[in-house]
Amino acid sequence: MVFYPSVTDLHDLDLKYNKENDATFVTTKAVEIISKSVLERSTTTIIGKPGIGKTSTIIHVALKMRENYGFRVILCHSPSDIESHFRANKTQLFILDDVCGRYTINQSAVDEWIKHEQTILRILSTRKVKLIISCRLQIYHEKQFQLLKFFTKTFYNLSSEEFCLSAEIRLKVAKKYLPIDAVNLIDTNSLMKFDIFPLMCSLYKNNPTINVSEYFENPYNFYLYDIDKLKEQSDKRKFCALLLYVLHNGFLSESKISTTSRSYYENIFEEIGLNRGTPVCDIVEQLDT
Question: If exposure means fewest CB atoms within 10 Å of the residue's CB, which of 14, 54, 116, 149 is most exposed?
């Protein structure tokens, strides 16, 4: 017999994973302010540049709400998820990460939120349900996103001067991810050079063989080099998978692809040197290798 986990099981698995990763989180000024907002308001939106720590912040706050106030935390992706898992008289906190797109705004997602707006507002009016979302800065400023008034009413910009991570906090973050000898090699100027410092530490932890000083001085050089190498390979499928992943806002699946015109992919395949008849499923599989 094949066991298919329920949605609730999957939420619990996701939270278990996030709780384990939360061990590397360093509490910041933003955490206390956002936590207070979640308790006082129905919806709290966290915005900021990519890699600045939006996801880790909302997960940390959510876990804190669960432990301290008994919230049932539910990770979701759409208004339909909220409607499906809403339970009257239950204290619930719904989390949505990268709402309405990652690289560009997802118009269909915006349309879905508009369609379900009144239902979501009725759910939130019970005062037992809270919603905390993260959104990239460029998505938040899109005029389509600004139509979603319940998302834009209360927001906190982690990229703002108010929440900018100090050198002291950044050093604490580095020590959570890196061995102390590597931390000591990070130049003071490099420590404050990039907003994405938390992400840089996380990525370095997964690839500790690279030169730590050079990496924190300019991390983009390392990834541009890897992308160039990927592009130069005779088998273009991995490079194509990366390209499609970006074009699909960080969500690539066979079901997603099946709703897109075949000619759209054929033109991309031809442009990067793949056979126009390449099965799209072959490209999707490259993300797992």
Answer: 149
- The CA-atom distances, in angstroms, between 113 and each of 28, 71, 155, 198 are 31, 23, 18, 31
Residue type, 257: I
Q: How confident is the model at residue 14 (pLDDT cuts 50, 70, 90)?
A: low
CA 44 to chain centre: 16
| Region at 89 (left for phi over 0; alpha for psi -120 to 50; beta for the rest) | left
**Residue found under tokens 């692809």:** 257
When comparing pLDDT for 103 and 251, which is higher?
Answer: 103
Cα gap 286→76, rounded to integer Å: 26
- 3-class secondary structure, 151: helix
CA torsion through residues 178, 180, 183, 185, sign: negative
Between CA 27 and CA 111 the distance in angstroms is: 35
Q: How far apart are CA 33 and CA 38, in angstroms?
A: 9
Q: List the beta bridge partners of residue 48.
A: 136
pLDDT at 237 over 60: yes
CB-CB contact of 38 with 74 (8 Å):
no
- With contact defined as beta carbons under 8 Å apart, do 96 and 76 qualify? yes
Measure the CA–CA gap between 78 and 95, rounded to whole angstroms.
10
pLDDT tens digit string along 261-287?
Answer: 788 888 888 888 888 888 887 887 777
For residue 126, the number of C-alpha atoms closer than 13 Å in the C-beta half-sphere is 17
The length of the chain in residues reads 289
